[in-house]
Design brief:
The protein has 290 residues and is an alpha/beta fold. Helices cover 41% and strands 26% of the residues. The strands form four sheets. An eight-stranded mixed beta sheet has the order 5-8-2-1-11-13-14-12, with helices on both faces. A two-stranded antiparallel sheet has the order 3-4. The model has no long low-confidence stretch (mean pLDDT 91).
Length: 290
């Protein structure tokens, strides 16, 4: 009986959030080691199906996880990283595109459809919604060339709006089309931030393999539940936020500055972390606001 009452209380608590976010766009980014954990990924995708069924409009942006690294290893290539982004030559680009489009994206779309929900894969081998140009990074006075790596400068938000209004979940691979029609490898966090900004989403949720942002990167218990963009900027300057967390916070700040209400970084290894963050008072990750 107590367990049943607890479940009922959970549903009542969720009701207010279901009403608040009805017909609101929520962009969810999934990548990293979560893509390689079948249970964790299934939980996240089930959460997205749930969100769709209760009237939210989820948009999913995904990376490739270790599947790309495994394919590169089979081809005798060693992944190289620059400031949290993958260096991409022509051979690597072909692998990235094949894995993202033909394996990962197809798996996600099939899973969502198997749960009775409509989904559409969007990538450089089908319908393109991300358009960009080659990007370079700065390291002091040095300009770093990342190969075929791009930044998103245009998002076909109209197509995405038509899809969510038709009750379909857009599933976007982190690839953009360059001005010449070729593919560019795009950081999935960066892509999700651009999509959330273009759609003026209610929320951006970055699903990671950490409990959120820590005040001490080495201490798992130092999660900070809520931060402002100014505090984020200070943590980047002081070196608390570095490496792979940098693109995540940059994506969140980009989205917030474009009008997104809130951004979240959560741990996808926690069962149904997406629902816990959106539909409960306490949440489980780090919430970022302007």
């Amino acid at each position: 009986m107590d367990q049943a009452i607890s479940k009922a209380q959970g549903l009542v608590e969720a009701l207010g959030y279901i009403q608040r976010f009805h017909n609101k766009v929520v962009v969810v980014k999934v990548g990293g080691s979560i893509m390689d954990d079948e249970v964790a990924l299934s939980n996240i995708l089930s959460d997205i199906v749930f969100m769709n069924y209760v009237g939210m409009q989820p948009v999913l942006v995904h990376g490739g996880g270790k599947a790309i690294n495994k394919r590169m290893e089979m081809a005798g290539l060693t992944p190289q990283w620059v400031q949290g982004r993958r260096y991409t030559d022509k051979h690597t680009l072909a692998i990235v595109q094949d894995v993202l489009c033909n394996e990962v994206n197809r798996f996600i779309v099939n899973f969502i459809q198997s749960q009775g929900c409509e989904a559409m894969g969007l990538h450089t081998l089908a319908s393109v919604v991300l358009f960009g140009q080659k990007t370079f990074l700065q390291e002091g006075e040095r300009r770093l060339d990342l190969g075929f790596v791009g930044e998103v400068n245009t998002v076909n938000a109209r197509l995405l709006q038509l899809l969510v209004q038709a009750d379909s979940v857009p599933v976007i691979a982190s690839l953009a089309q360059d001005p010449g029609g070729g593919p560019l490898n795009v950081n999935a966090d960066t892509a999700a931030g651009a999509v959330a900004a273009a759609m003026k989403a209610e929320k951006l949720v970055v699903v990671s393999d950490t409990h959120g942002i820590r005040s001490d990167p080495k201490d798992p218990e130092s999660r900070v539940p809520s931060l402002t963009t100014k505090q984020i900027e200070e943590m980047v300057k002081s070196g608390v936020i570095t490496a792979g967390m940098l693109p995540k916070v940059e994506a969140c700040v980009t989205a917030l500055q474009a009008g997104v209400t809130k951004a979240h970084i959560i741990d996808g290894r926690i069962p149904h972390s997406l629902l816990l963050e959106i539909y409960t008072e306490s949440g489980i990750g780090t919430e970022i606001v302007l």
